[in-house]
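for the writeup, i need someone to sanity check this before i put it in the appendix. the sequnce is what the collaborator sent (i think, or maybe the updated version? ugh). structure was predicted straight from it, no edits. if anything looks off just tell me and ill rerun, i have time this weekend
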Amino acid sequence: MNSPASTSAPSPATTEQANTLDNLLAEDRAFPPSPEFAANANLTAEAYDRAAADPEAFWAEQAQRLSWATPFTQVLDWSNAPHAKWFADGTLNVAYNCVDRHVEAGYGDKVAIHWEGEPGDSRTITYAELQAEVCKVANALNSLDLTAGDRVAIYLPMIPEAVFSMLACARLGLAHGVIFAGFSAEALRTRIGDAQARVVITADGQHRRGSTVPLKAAVDEAAEDPDSPIEHVLVVRRTGIDVTWNERDVWWDDLVETQSDQHTPEAFPAEQPLFVLYTSGTTGKPKGIVHTSGGYLTQASYTHRVVFDHKPDTDVFWCTADIGWVTGHSYIVYGPLANRATEVIYEGTPNSPHEGRHWEIVDKYKVSLYYTAPTLIRTFMKWGRDIPGKFDLSSLRVLGSVGEPINPEAWMWYRENIGHDNCPIVDTWWQTETGAIMISPLPGVTATKPGSAMVPLPGISALVVNDEGIPVGKGEGGYLVIDKPWPAMLRTSSVTTSDTPTPTGRGSPRRATTSPVTARSTTPTARCGCSAGSTT
């Protein structure tokens, strides 16, 4: 974007942004998919034109991949813009779509989750076992007098019980609020209070970089607030450390493990709130972003299938995000499990007990689809290429990037040292408000460019505009605007209110956008510079 001439020196941020734009404009390397990959891709180039010609028909096609108890007859209700409703007259159960239907289809013995604990313990969970565990948690929550529409806070490390708890809430129509296990008691207090969560699910502690860190103590402190809505605290025994015990507390083993592993799921409207997820609050008061069921699951499952070219019978998927961020919701729990994925979940840090732990896990489980953050890739670069060089890594076939812009140097290092120069890299742009990936290469279609998220996915419409909301020309910077509704878009910014509109764009009450979180781009095909951490 042009600006008036100035005699003062540009700020470091302005200089860095200008350099980034210049670097992307100068980047001319391109890496097309191999003919074999393209021939077997889940989505081909024709999808762009098909989706643009009739977006609602395209999204209806994606939604039909789910199991609906009551089929929807209307795809999008945009009559009250900027409030959108997707598949609103349809009903479904999200947990049924992620678990039960796979068991019913004969895949009960298929591995759903390879879980790896930081100390070296591990657990393999089939879809039949996952179904049993989710049913037991659902029955336990029912015994606490929770009913559809109530809220449950989940404050757990990366252990299987976190997935069980999220799916049990979805099964019962409860809106879960997962809170990152590294957040303080004060962060817990504000989020639990805002959501009015009656139950908190936590653990005695967690393993972190070889140490045992208390977790329940923060919940105890948050619950001391006289206005706290907390009625029950369900505690997983993970580390065995001593904890303070209160009347409201109950051990997971005592409540959950005594329950029946049978539970009949109820169908809920597509617009039933599925979860509330709070923004980090680094730039102001945390906002509770609400996502609903039918539209969110449609886009989470669609993007997982096409962006990673996921093949359920052969691939092993690993998203390294924490379950406390939106990436963990969409690409650890809901997207992969809706697609009958076999996935890896790792509890610990990438250098515990050694700096090759991720590559050790990739080789152990034959991970084929690996999705991580540029910050971690740059950390791997600092540790040196000799570390991944000690491992085979030949099982990998698609690499993903999420969380912040990835610089071309890190992109190339990732391709050469982790992908052995033959894995497509899908650099994804999205954020908490969008719910799922919006802009990304398609690995079987796109000639990828280092440092670039490329173009919007089929079904997504995006523009780069100036301050007046006018689309800019090729090579010009501006604001990234999503100008048409999408299924996984946020519905409100508080689980307990319904009068907060979906954010609107400049110049038109019907233009949806991710503003006030804005992104700079040279063109719609260049990497979008969203704020670090906004997508994980």
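Residues 201 and 234 are 5 Å apart (CA to CA). DSSP finds 15 helices and 22 strands in the chain.
thx in advance!!
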